[in-house]
Amino acid sequence: MQLDELNELATKVQQAQQACDHVVRVCMAASCQSSGAAAVLESLRSKTGDCQHVCVHGAGCMGLCAAGPLVEVSQRGRAETVLYQHVTADDADDLLAHLGGPVIQRLHCPTDIPFFARQQKIVLENSGIIDPEQIDHYIAAEGYQALVTALTEMSPAEVLREVDASGLRGRGGGGYPAALKWATVAKMPGEQKFVICNADEGDPGAFMDRAVLESDPHRVIEGMALAAYAVGASHGFVYVRAEYPLAIERLTTAIRQATKYGLLGSNICDTRFSFDIEIRLGAGAFVCGEETALMASIEGGRGQPRPRPPYPAQSGLWGYPTLINNVETLANIPPILRRGGAWFATIGTEKSKGTKVFALAGRICNTGLIEVPMGITLRDIVFTIGGGVPDAARFKAVQTGGPSGGCLPEQFLDLPVDYDTLRQVGSIMGSGGMIVMDQTSSMVDVARYFMEFCMDESCGKCIPCRAGTHQMHELLAKIARGQGTCRDLALLEELCEVVSAMSLCGLGQTAPNPVLSTLRHFREEYLVKLQDRDTAAAPVDAPETAS
Amino acid sequence: MALQLAKPAPPDDDKRWKMIEVTMRRNGYASHALIETLHRVQGLFGYLDEPAMHFVADSLGLPLSKVYGVSTFYHLFSLKPQGRHTCVICTGTACYIKGAGELIEGIRSHYGIELGQTTPDLELSAIGARCIGACGLAPAAVVDGEVLGKLTVERLIAKIEEVKRHAT
User: Which of A262, A363, A480, B130 is the most exposed place for a label (fewest CB within 10 A)?
Assistant: First the structure.
């Protein structure tokens, strides 16, 4: 396919879409589906039939999962749309009868609330708008423009330069500059190289990658193809959790459609560039999110990490140079190429560019998926966008970064969200899960919960992690039961240091983070649970104040 | 790649082995297709037993220890038969904060099984999931493939009883 053919197709699809007087989109992401969105779509479809004036189609995640199933209605020639919440199949008649007429008040979901108004969408720009199962919809939304333009008009070095100019950092949690990783792989000699998309989103409480794959799978494919072109790879893998059946299904469909259009496969756009993508399923192992473990799993073995260096960029899958990027990182690539790296660099903060997708969950009014510019404050996310804590309860902490992250109390809410600030206060950006807790959550219990997670998920390869997480869990459970002593607490702190310094991979190195951050910000909760708190509380506190 | 010797015979004449062979053939009997093959076996038989592991090991030219190692490493593979119905309880952070523990306790007191166990009559397996990514619906569970959100113990047990009744 050439650029003019692509443009022609895009125009054709756009015209067909504009021929409809009304477009009704039903959110078909996993969350709304479990609230009954499929029945809503089915009912709307059966009632409109072949009617030319009304287009009914499924769409990706609309963000406000708490209010699902969501249905969005737009009218030709009108920019504003109407969003309906908690829609059931029985509402279909009412909905269709009100098309072009007054808004149905009982179902109306106002979109001028900060939840929608404060977001800035790049990764999720098509999410909730296009039908993820139709490649034409993606093409009509400027999809594959970047790939075709890059292949026909740019050299791999020029693609790399744009990514470098954007300042994009890895969205998987580490925050390593994407262009640096790409350049390392590109510089490696040899014909055989691989690109891997890490969709093994294992952090509990995180569902950003799932939403991107379910809502806009072609964006990830385009990002992978652009990455492959820039680094000189011809084969790609998407490593996706088996727990995400809908994402796997949509990705499979998308790969098939892209291959049919000649946007994947041999000699794409009649150039010398060939690229194909295979899906590999995980089998339920959190450690496989670590890049060397992920590669071991793709090779068919136990997903155990190995020491680095050599880094995957030098010696990765089957010993070949391999580029591993997270779903969200790759989803940022097409807009960067389309609008230029300089445009992307205008968004965000000095060291953290662009936007970040967060999954808001826990004790918060507006649970769901949001995309905000880097540098926004935690308070804006939790209270303005998230709507604060429900049931008049008091905010206690926000947990970021999953089992590798930490809990931040109220005094840090005015900090800007970027990679470096969060690290300074003992948490991490992580992949984007944000869980809000109120006064009902005990911080010792939360630390114990995460430690149990790390203990179960430790692959068992290195001793500090295998034995250390177990011992830390025992100590935390003992303290949580009210049977701990000051010695236990001291031992726990010592173990935290040992495990984080001595473990082989990120899982073990970061496993103590939830304990350390809760100890740092909620130490009194540990102290009141100690058996001998009255007699020996002082000596435990002493080294803390001294350091 | 080692020379493919005589093709090993399936453990019995169950038609499902043919489908497993198709999966292995599609991947060129490559050893890196082990996880895909085990997914297929588990999908068709519900669990991985010893004859199945022997068959897969022989077909892919792998030592049995490697197949056993991979089967036991990943949480999704089960070496024991599963119940006719499954109830997956999400134990992700959001569900934990919103009361997944009560759901687990409810299953324990009502059916006498912990997560990872199956009732003696093979009717129900309770499984814990790390996070099913439905955090907006916390606490959530999946009963026979259907995701249920904002659950209470009563609703969960009612749903399980409902699917059990429908099957009989």
Answer: A262
Q: Write out chain B residues lying below 8 Å of A194, CB-based.
A: none
Task: With respect to residue A130, please indicate whether it lies within any of the assigned structural domains.
Answer: no
Model-level pTM?
0.93
Q: Is the domain of A339 the same as that of A388?
A: no
CA distance A137 to A130: 6
Which helix (H) or strand (E) covers residue A279, if one does? strand A276-281
Q: How far is A73 from chain B (nearest CA, A)?
A: 23
Whether the upstream peptide bond of residue A310 has omega within 30° of 0, thus cis, is: yes
Instruction: Looking at the structure, tell me whether residues A340 and A371 fall in a common domain.
Output: no
Nearest Cα neighbor of A228 from A168, A180, A292, A160 is A160
Low-confidence ranges of chain A (pLDDT < 50): 537-547
**Which chain B residue has its CA at the smallest distance from A304's CA?**
B73
Contact A201 B133 (CB under 8 A): yes
Cross-chain residue pair A34–B74, CB shorter than 8 Å = no
- Residues in A touching B114 (Cβ below 8 Å): none
How far CA A211 is from CA of A168, A346, A372, B58, B155, in Å, comes to 20, 26, 15, 39, 27
Residue A301 sits at the chain B interface (C-beta within 8 Å): yes
Query: B135, A205: Cβ pair inside 8 Å?
Result: yes
- Residue A522 belongs to domain spanning: 443-546
A30: CATH: 3.40.30.10
Among A377, A404, A438, the domain boundary falls at A438
Q: How many domains does chain A have?
A: 4
The answer to whether B143 and B132 are in contact (CB under 8 A) is: no
User: Beta strand pairing status for B141-143 and B146-148?
Assistant: antiparallel
Q: Determine the distance in angstroms separating the CA of A243 from the nearest CA of chain B, rounded to an integer.
A: 6
- Domain for residue A128, yes or no? no
One domain for residues B99 and B141: yes
pLDDT for B112: 95
Would B11 be classed as within a structural domain? Answer: no
Contacts of B34 in chain A (CB under 8 A): 300-301
Q: What is the CATH number of the domain that holds A380?
A: 3.10.20.600
CATH of the domain at B58: 1.10.10
Assess whether B36 and B99 both reside in one domain.
no
Q: Which of A345, A367, A386 corresponds to the end of one domain?
A: A345
User: Any idea what the CATH number is for the domain that residue B159 is in?
Assistant: 3.40.30.10
User: At a CB cut-off of 8 Å and minimum separation 6, what does A210 contact?
Assistant: A30, A201, A244, A247, B133
**DSSP class of residue A443?**
H
Cβ pairs A/B, distance under 8 A: 130
Q: Are residues A54 and A188 both part of a single domain?
A: no
Q: What is the pLDDT of residues A284-332, one digit of tens each?
A: 899 999 999 999 999 999 999 999 999 999 999 999 999 999 999 999 9
B38 to chain A: which residues are within 8 Å by CB?
A: 283
Q: At what angle do helices A463-480 and A443-457 cross, to 10 degrees?
A: 150
The tens-digit pLDDT sequence of chain B (168 residues) is 555 557 888 999 999 999 999 999 999 999 999 999 999 999 999 999 999 999 999 999 999 999 999 999 999 999 999 899 999 999 988 899 899 999 999 999 999 999 999 999 999 999 998 888 788 888 999 998 888 889 999 999 999 999 999 876
Tally of domains within chain B = 2
